[in-house]
Design a protein that fits this description.
Length: 146
């Protein structure tokens, strides 16, 4: 996306009284290789952050981070953020995955492996005419087949 796009969109949303939600289900936990969260790379500060999948390496765990004020307004007995019910096994799995991400510096690994992946994809582009655009960051990679 164009540089500054999300920042400008957030500004418009905030000026209209809205909230900025950053969905980190795909981009979170260092997958982009430069930051732990995608919104950090953009230089934004979300009101709500949703996350899942990577928290527990596929074990059904998801989470929402927000302010107390927003949570209190949403948790009125009618609304919940839950996709999966919390349980001790899921929490233990999530805690261990987060420790591994940090202890094994997997953010830096995402960057290094992404660079290698991009290098090889760009090499393939020179030989395979059906491989169009290749873009992304870290291990968030998209490619176009034409």
């Amino acid at each position: 996306m164009p540089k500054g796009y999300v920042n400008k969109a957030v500004e418009h949303v905030k000026n209209a009284g809205g909230l900025y939600l950053s969905d980190e289900v795909q981009t979170g936990f260092g997958r982009i290789g430069s930051h732990y969260w995608g919104f950090e790379r953009l230089g934004t500060k979300p009101d709500i952050v949703t996350m899942a999948k990577q928290i527990a390496n596929g074990f059904p765990v998801s989470a929402v981070a927000t302010t107390r004020e927003i949570a209190d307004n949403c948790m009125n007995g009618k609304t919940t953020f839950a996709t999966y019910g919390g349980n001790p096994i899921g929490m233990a799995a999530g805690r261990e995955v987060l420790k591994v991400i940090d202890d094994e510096d997997l953010v830096a690994n995402s960057h290094a492996m992404g660079e290698l992946f991009f290098k090889n994809l760009r090499d393939i582009q020179t030989r395979v005419p059906t491989l169009g655009d290749v873009r992304g960051q870290g291990l968030m990679i998209g490619l176009e087949l034409v």
